[in-house]
Design brief:
single chain, mainly alpha, two-stranded antiparallel ribbon, 9 helices, 2 strands, globular
């Protein structure tokens, strides 16, 4: 199991490195696809993945991404409003075929998955070339980097439970280690950028951004776990061997991506 998880993790990192490096339409297509898969996984939890509410949510996701692709700012909010209206139309005109929980969850997936994941693409496109790549990398340092640091510190020093009912294996010590580890990785990343690209990236700012991102990533991780606990499922899917589905692997990234985007936008 560990070998499978490790190998699939390496493949995923390589794929991400390539799509982030290419940026543009390649990264756009990648984020769109994983968003739609993630929405499908969430719809499956409430059993509407192949039914009208799930279809409307997916169409809303496509419309939202279209606003990004064509750079029509007014269409972003309009796509979300339109999706809500259509979703409620499905609810009332097919009543009582679908429960309120199914409608709410399906629409929630549009925001929770599609909109939030889209910030990977938006962060990458804030700047061109290596600068844009660096911003996208900060998202994964804050999420996956902090998760790795938290795991290592938790294994060595973990005593007090961070969320004993929701996630018994996570510790306060691990959480602190994850935040400090992400801050250190962010600082190191800025140092490498300065040395290899003759840049003037602030080590302190990069450490701050990754540290804050790490705190947010823990909320994302636990939020995804809470949804699974409520619906008594182990994983959202089986797409990534050893990891589960898109939502299982990108749960922390979902929350971190928009935070890093806005911090980069206003601080860098």
């Amino acid at each position: 199991m560990f070998k499978t998880r490790l190998l699939s993790g390496i493949v995923l990192v390589i794929v991400l490195a390539l799509v982030i490096g290419f940026g543009g339409n390649v990264l756009f297509a990648f984020t769109l696809v994983i968003s739609l898969i993630g929405m499908y996984e969430l719809n499956k939890v409430v059993k509407v993945e192949n039914k009208l509410p799930g279809v409307v949510a997916l169409l809303g996701g496509v419309l939202y991404y279209s606003s990004l692709f064509f750079k029509v700012e007014s269409l972003k909010l309009a796509s979300l409003v339109l999706a809500l209206i259509l979703m409620m139309a499905v609810y009332v005109f097919s009543f009582p075929k679908f429960e309120a929980n199914q409608i709410i969850t399906s629409y929630f997936g549009l925001i929770y998955v599609a909109v939030m994941i889209s910030y990977i693409y938006q962060a990458r496109m804030l700047k061109s070339g290596a600068e844009g790549v660096a911003l996208a990398v900060l998202i994964f340092i804050s999420s996956w980097g902090s998760d790795t640091c938290a795991y290592c510190v938790g294994m060595l020093l973990g005593k007090r439970k961070l969320a004993p009912i929701l996630s018994p294996k996570k510790s306060v010590e691990g959480g602190i280690g994850g935040v400090l580890g992400a801050a250190l990785l962010g600082c190191l990343f800025a140092f490498i950028l300065n040395k290899t690209g003759n840049g003037s990236h602030s080590l302190l700012l990069y450490a701050l951004i990754c540290g804050v991102g790490a705190v947010i990533s823990m909320i994302g991780d636990l939020a995804a776990s809470a949804i699974k606990r409520n619906h008594e499922i182990k994983d959202y899917g089986t797409l990534i061997p050893g990891h589960g589905g898109i939502l299982d692997r990108f749960d922390s990234v979902i929350f971190t991506a928009p935070i890093i985007y806005y911090m980069a936008l206003y601080l860098l």
